[in-house]
Amino acid sequence: MGDRPVTKKQKRYMMLIILAGFVMFCLCAMRAIPYFQAQGLSALLYCIILFVLMVLCRMLPIYIGTGRAMDISFVPMLACAITSHYSVAVLLFTLSTFFS
Fold first, then answer.
1. N or C: the chain end with fewer CB closer than 10 Å?
2. From CA 58, how far away is CA 78, in angstroms rounded?
3. Which pLDDT belongs to residue 41?
4. What are phi and psi of 4, to 5 degrees?
């Protein structure tokens, strides 16, 4: 099985997906700013703790068998979405991918 070259149609599709993700990240960042302004320093500390938990959960998966691992980073993301705003959860989850 050889590697097939990426077609122009596939490149356009990948660029569209990347652009859509970047736009959603920017929209969530803009929606998270009023949340941080309203909540103050306690919200920032809470988000830092959840961010560290997300990175740790991504870096330390649970091994459920030989060659099988389960990523549990959805747990702090779900906690963030429930206790704060969904845009904060998306923002933290996206940023945690760069650190893991």
1. N
2. 14
3. 85
4. -90, 145
Q: How far is CA 44 from the centre of its chain?
A: 17
Q: Going by C-beta distance under 8 Å and a sequence separation of 6 or more, which residues neighbour residue 63?
A: 69, 70
Would you state the pLDDT for residue 2?
Answer: 57
Query: Is there a contact between 18 and 94 (Cβ–Cβ < 8 Å)?
Result: no
Name the region of 48 (left: φ>0; alpha: ψ -120 to 50; beta: rest).
alpha
CA count, 13 A, side-chain hemisphere, 91: 19
Distances (CA, A) of 50 to 22, 43, 45: 22, 10, 9
DSSP helix/strand/coil, 1 = coil
CA angle 20, 30, 28 (to 5 degrees): 45
Task: Calculate ∠ Cα 27-30-33, nearest 5°.
Answer: 150
